[in-house]
């Protein structure tokens, strides 16, 4: 993929934003000179152009300044996500600086739209600047050399602005469409329909809150959303999921941990039931991402799946299970909340997203006999989460 290197892309973004800022300051000075020399009967044009410039480039400039400020001083100012400086929380400040403060309720269920919002706002700003440019061209003859100067400056500054939009889009594209841990062959592998996508673990709740395991969703443990994106990104911590009582044919979200190599192979085939297990043969799921740590034999990739429980037998002790049970799922209600369930048939698994631990403990994985990817590495495509700080949610 073009500009796959995260650091390089981030470097380009910084350079392009700086060029656009300098271009804006120059245009602003030219406009102010124009305004001061304009006659009262022809002042309307530069006033409208100035307002359009302030409504687009100036807002981006302010956003970028807050972003740089937060990136370096945010951790000193804000001790936790909910702590406020004045009336401004850290989360709000991040949203403001990344131009993603326009929030709809649907973003809860579709977090991938957050970056689309940022891109749309930037495109809208460019459209406003284009209108300003057209106005300047129309009235350039009225103001002589200065008006013409603004038009030429505006035309040239569209070049870095358009490249900037392309690089911004690549950021979104890389995160949601292109990221995969196995990149030894450049060709994209064929995944089965149930596999939605790979996501880096840095996008989950745990990595974004300074308070470990705080849910990013306001509804916390009462949240009933079964959208995979929502559950992974906002409730990846110790939030019990599914709820206290399961019903037959209920759709729940289950978590299963396996190795990087196995996850890449599952994305192309399917999860296969084991021939035995402590609550019967089948595919085992924990009810939160963290609980898979105590139940897995292989580590590094988390399969978060939407599972149809079908006919369910709920047990409170593993010995309550017997091979004669006529059910699709055995649900074990653990005394300390670490519930797990075993589904008999892979067809009960409707869809999944695979979350990849980007920074695995290689020694631990080797000790546990986890097979790496064919290239010998555990993660071939490392997504540098440090450059995405504050950008995605
Ligand atoms: Zn929620």
Automatic annotation (TrEMBL):
Top-rank taxon of the source lineage equals Eukaryota
- Please verify whether the record's keywords include Transmembrane helix: yes
Q: Which UniProt keywords apply?
A: Membrane, Transmembrane, Transmembrane helix
Instruction: Tell me which SUPFAM superfamilies the record gives.
Output: ADP-ribosylation
- TM segments? 12-31, 43-70, 121-143, 149-170
Please report the name of this protein according to its UniProt entry.
PARP catalytic domain-containing protein
